[in-house]
Design a protein that fits this description.
With about 110 residues, this protein is mainly α. The chain has one domain: Recoverin, domain 1 (Orthogonal Bundle), CATH 1.10.238.120. It is about 60% helix and about 0% strand. The chain contains 5 helices and no strands. Helix 1 crosses helix 2 and helix 4 crosses helix 5. The two termini are about 25 Å apart. The mean pLDDT is about 95.
Length: about 110
Amino acid sequence: MSKRDELITKYAADIKDKIGQTPDVDFLTKVTIGCGPSIYNKDAATVSGSDAAELETVKKNFLIKKLGLSDGPKLDEAIASVMDAYGKSNRNKYRAVVYYLLAKHFKKESVYK
């Protein structure tokens, strides 16, 4: 099993155990590949739910640039909703899982086709 496959298995377990959803592993794999080498860097692989600058980066680089959404309060609300679902006390919020949940929230799976 490759390192990436191990990470995808870990991300799928997070979605199932911490969020209570059944993961779409094919889509999760596409999102993980889309994250590029950042998934292998301990700091870049996670998103700090309490760091406003990092959440702004998620909004600008992922939601606006990657998914093509327009800036507005709905983006901030979606990020807050994902952070709540993932659990505020959970220190390791994996970037691939956050992106997966946001893409699902906005029904933008087609971006990864």
